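Figure-free illustration: sequence to structure, shown twice.
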Amino acid sequence: MRHRQVLAVATVALFGLSGCADRPNDLDTYYDDPAPTPTVEPARPSVKPQAAPVPPSTQARVPAAVSAALLTDEDVAEEEVVPGESKVSGCLTGLTRGTSRSTAWSYPSGSTLEHQVTEYTDRDAADVVARADCDGKKVTLTKQTGVEAQRAWCEGTTCTVLLAKGKLVSALSVTAGTEARATDAAKRLLPIVAQRLRSA
């Protein structure tokens, strides 16, 4: 009886060992996890890269003639002014439909001086000046040579002068404590503005 029990135990042990024979007996890899099955990502549709959009220019390219006709600090040095903030108001607001550039100065007294040059590619500057309708009373100033059209107005204590040559309109605006002072400043600066316009 004892002999049969030993034989049965041996048989069970033999079958148990044979069941493990399909796994290699390599201790370095025996307890390793099975190799992971590689995951295949779904194919993405081919998309051609698009060129980055070019942001719109914040400032239009100013033609050389516009810059050449604009007054500089040296031009107004005798007025004893300092650079100020350009506000483009009053009569000048109707002249900004073309490519323009402006600059401004302030007097020690608080008076202001502003100059704006505008280029019109679709019409003559003389036509723009002739059609300009500025508020205030018309003022006659000395006619400048080499200028195709010239007009001036004073409204309150602000005087504005428009000059035209080719495709350029040069606009000078002076605001002072009194109309007389604004007119005097415009008279002093008019030849300089005309010279700038002629040389542009």
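We now fold a second protein in the same way, so the two outputs can be compared directly.
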Amino acid sequence: MPFEKTTKGNPYRLTKEQHFHMKAIIKKFCINGKLKVIYKNGDIRLCKPDNKCFMGNRAWSQEMETTISHPIERSFLSQVEKIENGEGISNHAAISDYHLLWCLRWHYSIMVAEDYDLYKNFPCRSLDKEFEELLESKGKVPVRSGGQIAGRFKATLDIKTLLELEDNKKIYDGLEWQIVESKGKSFISADCYGDLMAMTVSPKYRLIAGKELNDKHCFVTDDEVDELNLESMNASHNFYFCRDDS
């Protein structure tokens, strides 16, 4: 039973619906508060940034949401703002960290972690639900009868491990992110880029990772935008999204 509702009134203000991709970035694709979402099955919908397609339901713990995710998001958003202000990128690692975080959160929002036996036959009883939520709000992991933890805490443990895993860090070693700017057609974004070392951060800007880049900032034609958008479509898993330019 991985998904659990909070107690009535949510007294500890736990995040119930969690974005796997930053709302601040999704909003950049909005016109009048909505953006276009194109599903792989052909369905097209106009959605708000809080649409459930961008979120999981308590897929990870509050510690993951605030203590771990928010610092990575803030550092990444700072780089996006620098790009939009014409200042360029000053911290490539911040972009790499977010690229990995986005991928991991997307995975755990889709493949929700099951409850997990942290300890075998641990001699303890479950706490009442509100006290569990108090502990969660303070970044703690409540252990239930027999040594089990809820799936969202297992997801947090997994994501923390994967963010620090040496093999994952090596993927980004030596990479810099090139700014690709369109003066014409709009870029689209995949729901998640996975192992593709690229991401769209607004209808105007796309980032591509590489080593020893000659051009830190380049401009592309409409035909090249079409090629890069096809790459985003192919990288997407369930849907891709864009500004509604119709």
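Summary for the second example: The first strand starts at residue 17 and ends at 19.
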